[in-house]
Predict the structure.
Amino acid sequence: MVKFEENVDLSKLCTIKIGGVAKKVYFPENKEDIKELIKLSLDTDKKLIPIGVGSNIVFRDGVLDYIFVSTSNLKKLDISKEDGNFIITAETGVSFKTLVNIVKKYNLEGFENLSGIPASIGGAVVMNAGAYGTEIFDLVEEVEWIDNKGVSHISKKENISYGYRCTQFQNEGFVYKVKIKLKKSEKNISEIIKNHLLERNKKQPLDLPTSGSTFKNPEGISAGYLLEKAGLKGFRIGDIGFSEKHANFTVNYGKGTFKQLKNLLEIAERRVGDYFEINLEKEIRIVE
Ligand SMILES: Cc1cc2nc3c(=O)[nH]c(=O)nc-3n(C[C@H](O)[C@H](O)[C@H](O)COP(=O)(O)OP(=O)(O)OC[C@H]3O[C@@H](n4cnc5c(N)ncnc54)[C@H](O)[C@@H]3O)c2cc1C
């Protein structure tokens, strides 16, 4: 029987800290547990919703009766060497914080631009998270995943479909394990990481609950620029608003609600549509 908790406050499972109550949240500890939950989802016809660090997901208010699956107990990690490269194989719940510590310890190159993204490795793979010109798929070798029917697959990167902040895993299954390759560096990786973190601190509202970038950047232009030009930087509805520091970051000033967030997103989409004739596409994943 997979471990679970009942009546879970979903605002505690997402970084913007809004949302209602989950009837149940499951905490699988291995691949068999995940398969059992996929079977439960099929048998009960309830959608399965994985939750990593919760930094790109928001939940509606009220009571939600899905098969919520937290990856927080899936944190096994293996480091090996192959042809002078470091191969890290991580279960989905391993955090970027943990990976940053490894990268600093062995002075490994490749991951540094991604430091500071508050992700689990699984969530990052599903979203193809990226920063400063690097995407997680630049480092991925293979992904072990379980499809919506409960069948396991190990897919090499070249057989995975992914693009800007999107991958096949957003619809097709549960990411269980990720293998990434990094190499020893001649550079001072800790110093580069320190600078990235300082840069993030300067530009992002890290003092408030936030779900990070709200909209994807349309081709050739940043969503933050469009929102700012449409007068939405610092614009708020109740306790939810676009940050004063970064127009594409939605923040919670205290008692924000999902309804306020929904209104805010609708206004932003309409305004940017009217001003620039551009349809903004949401990056954050909304669970209603
Ligand atoms: C302060 C801040 C800064 C950020 N900076 C960046 C940035 O620079 N670049 C960037 O790309 N993003 C950024 N983000 C967004 C976010 O951190 C990334 O999208 C991250 O990859 C999400 O990982 P997570 O573990 O939090 O996933 P979650 O938010 O928990 O989940 C995201 C989606 O993936 C699904 N999911 C999670 N785990 C699995 C799994 N194992 N299998 C299948 N589906 C799964 C969820 O159901 C959901 O749909 C930022 C967010 C914040 C709050």
Summary: The pocket of flavin-adenine dinucleotide is lined by residues 15, 49-57, 71, 92, 117-120, 122-124, 126-127, 129-131, 169, 174-175, 204, 206, 210-213, 285 (CB under 6 Å). The chain has a mean pLDDT of 97. The longest strand covers residues 173-184. The domain at 205-287 is CATH 3.90.78.10 (Uridine Diphospho-n-acetylenolpyruvylglucosamine Reductase; domain 1).
